[in-house]
């Protein structure tokens, strides 16, 4: 909770005063993070979350396998703040319900409010976690 409050205050964001609300925001951001692919492997097969990890090298330095990198903590805090405005893990049901459509030169489509749920995209996410997260256009290759 303190990481979220410090992160928000340093950047001019506001977060709820109630710890319970902040805890929910952090859980939602954790759910988003758990849906990503990360470099390395879990430090322990029995740990419930993706971090801490072993086998992660960043800027030529092996990261400790018993700690969570500060940039990942910061990303969780920023996602928690984003969760105040948008659903980080919406149920995607194939697109919005079209309520109006017209073709007159340019195509115009209008969707029923609340039906166009797509997975949110954050341009800052992959750049801030470069070296930790496996990007969408990358694949893991292991030598046998």
Distance between the termini: 43 Å
Overall geometric form = globular
Give average pLDDT, whole number: 87
The main β sheet shows up as: 2 strands, antiparallel
Give helix and strand order, one letter per element, not per position: HHEEEEHEEH
Number of domains: 1
**C-alpha-based Rg, rounded:** 19 Å
Primary descriptors:
144 residues
Question: What is shown here, in short?
Answer:
31% of the residues lie in helices and 15% in strands. With 144 residues, the protein is of the alpha+beta class.
What would you say this structure looks like, in words?
- With 144 residues, the chain is an alpha+beta fold.
- It has one domain (2-128).
- Helices cover 31% and strands 15% of the residues.
- The chain is built from 4 helices and 6 strands, in the order ααββββαββα.
- The strands form 3 sheets. It has a two-stranded antiparallel sheet with strand order 1-2.
- A hairpin with a 2-residue loop joins strand 3 (57-58) and strand 4.
- Helix 1 (2-11) crosses helix 3 (70-82) and helix 2 (19-34) packs across helix 3 (70-82).
- The longest helix is centred in the first third of the chain and has 16 residues, at 19-34.
- The termini are far apart.
- The mean pLDDT is 87.
